[in-house]
Amino acid sequence: MLFNTLKFFLVFPLIFVFYWAIPSKYNQWRKLFLILVSYLIYMNWKPVFALILLWVTIVTFAGGWCLAFFSDKCKNKQIIWLFSILGFLPLLVFKYYNFINASIAIGLEHVGVRFYMPGLNWAIPVGISFFTFQAMGYMLDVYHGRTKIEKNFIDYVLFVSFFPQIASGPISKADELLPQIKQENKFNYDIAVSGLRYLLWGMFLKVVLADRAGIYVDSVFAEYEKFSGMGCFLASVLYSIQIYADFAGYSLMAIGLARTLGFNLINNFNRPYFATSVTDFWKRWHISLTRWLTQQIYIPLGGNRCSKVRNYWNIMVTFLVSGLWHGANWTFVVWGGLHGVCQIIEKTLGWRKKDYKGLSRLLRSVLTFLIVTLAWVFFRSPSLTDALAFFTRFASTSGELIAQGSTLVYIFLGLIPVLSYEILCEFFPKKYRALFDTPYVRWASYLAIFTLLLLIGVFDGSSFIYVSF
Amino acid sequence: MKKFFIKLSLFLVAMVSIDIASGAVFEYLTSEAKYGETYSSNYISNLCTDEIIILGSSYADRDYVPFVIQDSLGLSCYNCGEPGCGIIPAYARYKLIAERKPPRLVIYAITPDYDYFVSEDYTKYLGRIRQFSKLMPVSELFDSFGDELDSIRLLSNLYRNNSYLIQNLMDYFVPTVDYRGYGPLYGELTEESAMRDSLAQVRKDTMAHDVDSLKLSYLEKLFAAIKADEVNVICISSPMFAPNAEIDSHFLPARKLCDKYDIPFLDYRNFDGITGHRDLFHDFGHLNDKGANQYTELLIPILRYYLNSGM
Q1: Are A410 and B166 inside 8 Å of each other by CB?
Q2: From A23, A188, A462, B228, which residue has the greatest number of CB atoms within 10 Å?
Q3: Residue in A with minimal Cα distance to B150
Q4: pLDDT digits (tens, 9 = 90+) for B29-45
Q5: How far, in Å, CA of A313 to CA of A308, rounded?
């Protein structure tokens, strides 16, 4: 069940009321209620997916126990390998089997060997990349001694299946979310109101900006040969806006829903398009994934506590994994690789270490935005051939510039409040806080945003982009 | 918790007030619109009593020129075609017009994809008529094609007028020419675009097409209603630049219904003097303004025949 549907908004108040109706001293019942709700919402996609979720939960929980039981380093290494394979197995099968199969077949064909395995025609369980990483993150943290083993199975089941974050994150760490699960939460007015604020803003980003931009972007990418270079470039920029608004919108809605239930999830985005370098971009974009990759891939490989060449290798591997995490296609690998290469270049030139201000900051932000936008073309395209063909259109002066004028006007209307808010928060945080301390300004903003949402939002219940990861 | 619910309730009350006020504003903008799509939709839904009406998708909207028909036949004519849609708005539009005064002739420009083939979902069609969802024939379509929560969504004036703001404001303030519902296209089909469109058309034609029984049932309801009103009706498949004979079977469901209700089915995909002339086409399937005028003029004797034959 998607968060941007009326069905969810009719169901959620019931969840909210029932949850808070259970007294805090019966926290165990609250947890069971949330587990029931989480699994029912998850099974609403496809009931059998719940078995995959349960499998990953049980495997990683058992893995944590086994690691705690054996204090022998050698045995622990064997255990972590065994349980990692078991834990990642559904992700590998459902998401990567066809990709690996096709890639091997093509590779063998190039050397004159014909070998085909049958493909799988199975739907990918929703959010499998997210909940697998979250659960595996716990087990790996136990292995590395970063967190204590979780002994309460109920708490752990809720940690993995918590419905606000299961479909598209954020990816929580065990030592962030588990203590909150164990706590007897009392209703807090300010946290609940901030939750509704996040929910409203997230919904606005998603249905007003992301979905509207998506209509425009889809029409251009479907027939890019018809459009001029500027027209294709405009579509690329709008795709940057679409993917940010879509993913950040979902994350904010997830955070908002969790807050209304008294839980604090990590903020996943920090105005990424104001980044002054690709490295800075990854500190602001999908923060929870960056953290996971840093802790579970980059640092175990040696991080930056090694030779320069080794460090560059570690960066590349981390970003190739990031690319692959996003999708089973060479376009995602290239996208990840591009980000890795950019970061290596920045490190070599020493660009990351300075604090930029004024015109220098503006230029670097614009350049970073352009680099990220061009990389998104690989992310959006169904194949490398399509991506390269799209890029060749940039040189063309013939063709249409604008696909849908009225759609562009609505996107612009949606961008005004979003840009205003982000610029205020990034460059004038004190002014922002002073402004929003006034109740009239706050209420006028809520009413204006909700009105705009109903008036110019796209309401066909379209999916979030990252739900397919 | 009490404070939370009180503030939430105040917010909802404020939103309901805004919603009611916006309803009045949009009501004014649509009923007083002087130009464009808003004027046209309002005219069709609330005012049209024209003697000849054209229904269908963009094949109706772009290919049939009401002024040519009016000047040649001396009868009022309005083009009620809606690009990107077919039977869903067409059914409602006919019912709304016939309630006031049934026309003398209905020209239905058939488009299998929109009239009876399965498409991704119905929301894009319903979106075109949402502003008039309070009117009975339109609400009937929402009951049939919408989901079970549409009745809740449509309570909101803001939702009902979703995505109409720019159009309504422009059509109130910005003068445009009144083409009586006709939407002219300008520009000619180039050799490059003919090649490209031809490949796209072949790809589209060879895809599997399943019949949507709900859509087809409404096409039948439309024909039955027209016949019950004793209105002359003809069903036309409009000229194409290079028609593909292999998709004749796509028109079989329409032909069967026409046979059942004794409605002439005119297959004009390959129309003498129009088909194959790049200067008359905007793209593979749609005539440009020059082509539409020429085609409509060539159609006049046929329309005169069916008007006089009183079938």
Answers
A1: yes
A2: A462
A3: A6
A4: 999 999 999 999 999 99
A5: 9
Rounded distance, CA A130 to CA A133, Å? Answer: 5
CA B172 to CA B29: how far, in whole Å?
Answer: 7
Name the residue facing B14 among A225, A410, A447 (closest C-beta): A447
pTM: 0.89
Q: Provide CB contacts within 8 A for A326, sequence distance 6+.
A: A129, A332, A335, A336, A379, A469
In whole angstroms, give the CA distance from residue A281 to residue A290.
Answer: 10
> 3-class SS at A400?
strand
Could you report the per-residue pLDDT of A351-379, keeping only the tens digit for each?
765 677 888 899 999 999 999 999 999 99
B135's torsion region: left (phi>0), alpha (psi -120 to 50) or beta? beta
Which among A143, A123, A124 has a CA at the least distance from the CA of A60?
Answer: A143
Interface with A, mutate which of B1, B16, B284 (most A CBs under 10 A): B1
Q: Indicate which residue of A144, A286, A326, A339 is catalytic.
A: A326
ipTM: 0.85
Burial code (b: 16+ CB inside 10 Å, e: under 16) for A75-91 equals ebeebbeebbebbbebb
